[in-house]
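Why should sequence recovery work at all? Because a backbone constrains its sequence more than one might expect. Tight turns favour small or flexible residues, buried strands favour hydrophobic ones, and helices have their own preferences. The token representation captures these environments compactly. In the example below, the structure is given first.
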């Protein structure tokens, strides 16, 4: 059988926020803030950013004894301000790029509209020319007496297709 650690012997590992906070003489939320902002050495067995935590007394003692050095050199693992500044710069750049792309899209849309209108006008002109040529060919193929009424007699101009 394995022996359990005795109560009078301090355990090397501390399990959970309560034990870690009690060992450091702080509240649970304070210790959690220390982890986020100042790199308190805790480990998560499930390797997830949340959940249960464990820590060793030696690491916690080392972290506490390094506190004056951290304060003197303003060492911190909290890069959140720089991270947020970086994110805000990225967002601003993205918004500027989106505005630029939107303007380009409007310009392209106007060019496409103009091109479609020009194409439509060209097709209408071609239809008019084709109609004129077809009827001219029909007249030349069967000459019609101008005084005679014929169903093939055409008015001067047909409307273009719309």
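From this structural description, the recovered sequence reads:
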């Amino acid at each position: 059988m394995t022996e359990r650690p005795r109560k009078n012997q301090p355990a090397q590992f501390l399990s959970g926020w309560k034990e870690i906070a009690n060992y450091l003489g702080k509240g649970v939320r304070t210790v959690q803030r220390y982890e986020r902002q100042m790199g308190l050495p805790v480990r998560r067995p499930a390797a997830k950013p949340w959940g249960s935590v464990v820590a060793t007394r030696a690491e916690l003692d080392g972290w506490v004894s390094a506190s004056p050095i951290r304060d003197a050199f303003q060492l911190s693992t909290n890069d959140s301000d720089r991270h947020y500044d970086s994110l805000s710069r990225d967002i601003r750049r993205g918004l500027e790029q989106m505005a630029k792309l939107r303007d380009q899209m409007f310009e392209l849309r106007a060019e496409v509209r103009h091109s479609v209108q020009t194409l439509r006008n060209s097709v209408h002109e071609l239809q008019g020319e084709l109609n004129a040529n077809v009827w001219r060919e029909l007249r030349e193929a069967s000459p019609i007496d101008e005084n005679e009424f014929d169903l093939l007699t055409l008015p001067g101009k047909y409307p273009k297709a719309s």
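A few observations help interpret the result. The beta strands are 13-15, 54-56.
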